[in-house]
Automatic annotation (TrEMBL):
The lineage of its organism: Bacteria, Candidatus Magasanikiibacteriota. Belongs to the UppP family. This is Undecaprenyl-diphosphatase. The gene is uppP. It holds the Pfam family BacA. The keyword Heme does not apply. Bacitracin is thought to be involved in the inhibition of peptidoglycan synthesis by sequestering undecaprenyl diphosphate, thereby reducing the pool of lipid carrier available.
Amino acid sequence: MFLDIIKAITLGLVEGITEFLPISSTGHLIIVNKWLSFAPSFTVMFDVVIQLGAILAVIVVFWKKLWPFGKDEASKSTTLNVLSLHIWYKTILAVLPALVLGALFGSFIEEKLFNPLVVAVALILGGVVLIVIEKRRVATPVKFTSEISYRTAFLIGLFQCLAMVPGTSRAAATIIGAMLLGASRVVAVEFSFFLAIPTMLAATAYSLLKYNASIGISEVIILGVGFMAAFFTALAVIKFLLNYIQNNNFKAFGYYRIGLGVLILLFFTIL
């Protein structure tokens, strides 16, 4: 039981650190699971639950922007925040491509692409793209999240579909897509956070529907530990990234991806 708690904390930390950075949480979890994992069926459930912890962190950090209801101090009546509503409308529109493609090809992707070789190649290619984009940065007309059009939101959603290939990174795909479409780094990161909520909730619901094994008290404890580890780690990472991008670019993440991808290739194909 003690060893399982250590595993849960470690995997929760990995999820929390990597989910919102453009370095692929799925890719890291696939690699870490080679050494630290539970029974195959429970691993599926565990990965789902720690993702929920990361989602909760986003909601906590951006609660004021995302919650569309408020109180009018003068009349004490409930008011609607139009900007928050439009954020939700745009994120729901943006998630539709991934929902459709996930329903059509999700099982095939899980069976054929969830392996270290695919992860390594995706990490390297994504790293190169991040570096190239940062070296060729153009004007960024979209300075605020509210300025993202519905068309742009949908196109960012199409970019997100690239993240179905493990190792690509959902965060990297949406951030790169938003930046190519004219968003500043801050806007690209914020919209990536917002889009994570419906995307990850949909993926979580899909995984839960497929899970049909029973769980006991020990499994509940392990799930709770992993959830909390992912939540608090993701909370810190979100705040770090929001501060980091104020004065820094994504090149460091690009180099990290390339280095990790090369190490994975060496370890799993040569050694």
